[in-house]
Amino acid sequence: MEKVSPILSFSGQATLENVASQVSINFVEPEFFELSGIKPVGTSFEKQKQAIVNSSFLSIFNLDLQKAKGKSLKIEILVPEEEEIKTVALPESFEIVGSFAEEEEPKIYLLLEELPFAPKEFHLAKVKVKSEKFLEPVRAKLMGMGFMVSAISDVVSQANKIFKVLQVILATFGVVALVVAAIGLLNTMTITLLERTQEIGIVKAIGASAEDVKWLFLLESLFVGLMGGVLGIFVGFFGMFVFNSLVNLLAKALGAKALSLFFTPSWLLVFIVALSLAVSAVSGIFPTRRAQRMNPLEALRYK
Fold it and tell me: Whole-model pTM above 0.70?
């Protein structure tokens, strides 16, 4: 394990500007938010006597972070004893320095060192392993110690299954689009052949060989396919940029960390260009052979 951040939670009461409310009060280590994947708006813990709250807490007092930042909280926690629940008032006030979006119960987060007594147990712990290969051994060890364990990798695994289904669906659409593109290119080259029939007759009449005519049409077909592949790559990158920017704007508004949702390996770009050339070459074979075998006299008479 690389990091462990325990959490100790109590029910309690928070007083802000002479208005009190029942809240959940959580004592954590400074790296708790990092391990939880939460980036508070404002600042995280920088020193003692600071508090970070969630959006549900702010909504109780009809505040946003700008209005709440810098305000002082008085906090009391309810500590279960053997036969009773004891009320413990924290001796000093706490300054609100940050918040994050969460629509659950109102919560306040304080540093663990603010707890006025030594804890007998913790309610939860965030654990970070050094590498993915240690995930399952650590999980097995913790479960063997009697802990209930859940990992972000479980969510990722479920998400990957969904993405695989989406990949199959998108691949099916891609194959259909590829067939349509091949038919379209074949149709375009055939029309080009018919429009240039007399030109082919003239070229052959002045000495061009059938091989020269073949390369004229084949190179034109390859050029059309190449430009289509390159244009498709640019459109794909533009779509990725727009979608990723919109998602990151939403993530920042909710207090989450911006990230890149797409990964494009270099081999994929090469494959797209190569596939475009291959499809254009196959689609251009029939018109090319037809032009290659065309009789010059018949071509000149064609109207």
Answer: no
